Amino acid sequence: MTCCHDDQCASTPSLNSSGWRRGLWIALAVNAGFFLTEIIAGAAAGSTALQADALDFFGDTANYAISLGVAGMALTWRARAAVAKGGTLVVFALWVLGSTIWHALYGTVPRAEVMGVVGFAALVANGGVALMLYRFRGGDANMRSVWICSRNDALGNFAVLLAAIGVFGTGTGWPDIIVAAIIGGLGLSGGWQIVRQARGELYSESAARSVMAAE
């Protein structure tokens, strides 16, 4: 089995290519715009799922900004940035799960029509971003974290649509609560994947430096 660093492998996307940076800028703009849209619509509609998705958009906006800042830097810095992003996802997910429990106890029935319209628009936008970034999914932890965020966003938007249908059909807020819990679970899973890969890269880089110093 042949091993190499990601900037030495021909199959790995360029860490500072124009396509990579352009994709990040587009993803950042889409996420920033839909954060504002969903946080306002979620509050107006009384939807926990929309508000959870809005905070996910906010976290991803910050993540893409960090990725742009470390693109082209040494592996150690990129891995450290990925650890920070993964940790942010985990914290966000815990907040969402806690908020979901609160709304399950005291929540109201959200407006299904608002959830449906906003959720569909976000799904179309995020689906396009996820497809655009698909070819970068096999890069280092920093690149992979961007792909995971985009994938989770698209899945979360689809889940919001299902919640809107459920709320409309049942006349209760439980579909909204369930979807918020799912989004929280996706955040925990994605954050753990990012942190695990990034820590592995930091360990490998540290070991390589120790070998070089010994020589």
Q: Report the count of strand segments.
A: 0
Strand proportion, as a percent range, falls in under 5%
Helix and strand composition category: mainly alpha
Largest sheet: none
**Fraction of residues in helix:** over 70%
Number of helices: 6
Tally of individual domains: 1
Mean pLDDT: 77
Unreliable stretches covering 5 or more consecutive residues: 1-13
Q: In whole angstroms, how far apart are the ends?
A: 24 Å
Calculate Rg over CA atoms: 19 Å
Shape, per Cα inertia axes: elongated
Elements, N to C (H/E): HHHHHH
Topology record:
Layout: H1 18-45, H2 48-70, H3 75-106, H4 112-133, H5 141-170, H6 174-214
Helix pairs in contact: 1-2, 1-4, 2-3, 2-5, 2-6, 3-6, 4-5, 5-6
Describe what you observe in this structure:
- The protein has one domain.
- The protein has six helices and no strands.
- Helix 1 runs antiparallel to helix 2, helix 2 packs parallel to helix 6 and helix 3 runs antiparallel to helix 6.
- The N terminus is likely disordered.
Which keywords apply here?
single chain, mainly alpha, about 220 residues, 6 helices, disordered N terminus
Give the structure's gist in a few sentences.
The chain is mostly helical and 215 residues long.
